[in-house]
Amino acid sequence: MKIAILTFDGFNEIDSFVALAMLNRMKPQGWQAFITSPTETLTSMNGVTIERQKPLSFAAEADAMLVGSGVKTRDVAADDGLLAQIRLDPERQLIGAQ
To answer: Which of 34, 47, 71, 85 is the most exposed, fewest CB within 10 Å of its CB?
Structure first.
């Protein structure tokens, strides 16, 4: 199972990093989770800068998608251009949010 952890600038480290660590404990069973973002680098709400593992387009091919939260969640939700890039298929994908 391929899992996209959607992570945006201003993200909450606990949401993204704990989910990544816990889900990747299932690698022996074939699960793979990835920090997925529209930008190559992003900075958390506490100033931690990271590089994404997969581009936002990966969300369309993932078997599951988990949307994290952060201090800019409302900005993300109001960005029609960004939201249009997120391709969901609820008949095929598991979709969750934190």
So the answer is: 47
Identify the pLDDT of residue 75.
Answer: 94
**What's the whole-number mean pLDDT along residues 57-84?**
94
The pTM (predicted TM-score) of the whole model is 0.93
Question: Which uninterrupted H or E stretch holds 55?
Answer: strand 54-55
Cβ distance 45 to 73 under 8 Å? no
The chain-wide mean pLDDT, for the chain, equals: 96
CATH number of the domain that residue 64 is part of:
3.40.50.880
Residue 3 has what pLDDT?
Answer: 99
Range of the domain at 77: 2-97
Looking at the structure of the chain, the number of domains it has is 1
For residues 27 and 12, what is the distance between their CA atoms, to the nearest angstrom? 24
